[in-house]
Design a protein that fits this description.
With 294 residues, the chain is α/β, with parallel strands linked by helices. It is built from 11 helices and 12 strands.
């Protein structure tokens, strides 16, 4: 075995440790590095032999970084930031920003808010590329699963840097062709309800319905609020939809006032270290300036 004092860590070694720490599994690390899992496995073994100590604890759930791996990860992240700064400084046109920014949000926010401000971002920064992931879970910004997240929450994580975009107000909607004008019509027609499924048990729309219509059992449970809006628009039933999504669609009719007791907030979030990357700060600033909720 090569002794600990003889082994010289390379930038590629640090990149590998960083990828495995962030990914947690050989497959996830390999995907980040465009390598297969067996290559990642052999490379980690090589580094551990060279250093003379174990970097990761193996378990059925994946790889957990030990103390030295955490220290190396911190150095790798610093190197990553320096490389990003160097690439930005080396751009031929100083005002142009390039690179890929990973954005995580829900499909509702992506379609209802973000999509509308993307064309102006491309005009201002044509070399930027965006990778957009949609899901109800909050992406792990610390492990760089995403660079920026847009999330509905009243209490954003304290370790993240954020800006409050505004309130997400909701109301009950029906199809414009249904003839339903108010809650009395909903009761009279015994309308079907469309609601989020068990993946969103604390969603404001669920809390409001359970409080004011405790006996209602939704006939249709779906995995996103965007789907609720689509079903309502097609006359399947009634459902609670954000105003930013429902008020601009002619196929939908708002049949209650805004249910402000159950409103939440939209937050734009990033990691404290990511905000200094030019590509990330550029997209963050654009979204902060262009996204509007009243």
């Amino acid at each position: 075995m090569i002794s600990k004092t003889q082994y010289k860590l390379s930038a590629a070694d640090l990149e590998l440790v960083l990828a495995l720490n962030r990914g947690g599994t050989l497959a996830a690390a390999g995907e980040r590095l465009a390598l297969d899992a067996s290559t990642v496995f052999r490379s980690i073994q090589r580094i551990e032999r060279g250093l003379g100590q174990q970097l990761f604890a193996r378990s059925r759930n994946g790889y957990l970084a030990l103390e030295l791996a955490q220290v190396l990860t911190a150095h790798a992240e610093q190197l990553e930031r320096e490389l990003e700064s160097a690439r930005s400084a080396a751009q031929l046109v100083p005002d142009q920003v390039s690179g890929t920014v990973r954005l995580s949000t829900t499909d509702t926010i992506l379609h209802g808010l973000v999509a509308g401000v993307l064309p102006s971002l491309r005009v201002a920064h044509p070399l930027l590329e965006l990778e957009m992931h949609t899901g109800n879970e909050l992406a792990n910004l610390t492990r760089r699963d995403a660079d920026i997240a847009l999330r509905a929450t009243k209490k954003p994580p304290q370790h993240l840097v954020g800006k409050r975009i505004g309130p997400i107000r909701i109301a009950l909607f029906a199809s414009a062709k249904s003839g339903i004008q108010n809650l009395d019509d909903v009761r009279a027609q015994n309308s079907a309800w469309i609601a989020p499924d068990d993946a969103l048990p604390e969603h404001p729309s669920v809390l409001w319905r359970k409080k004011y219509f405790p006996k209602v059992q939704p006939q249709y449970r779906v995995s996103s609020i965007l789907t609720v809006a689509e079903f309502v628009a097609q006359g399947v039933g009634v459902g609670i939809v954000p105003l930013f999504l429902g008020q601009h669609r002619s196929e939908l009719r708002q049949i209650t006032d805004a249910l402000d007791e159950n409103q939440t907030e939209l937050w734009l979030l990033t990691h404290t270290e990511s905000r200094h990357l030019r590509r990330v700060s550029t997209v963050f600033a654009h979204l902060a300036n262009q996204l509007i909720l009243n």
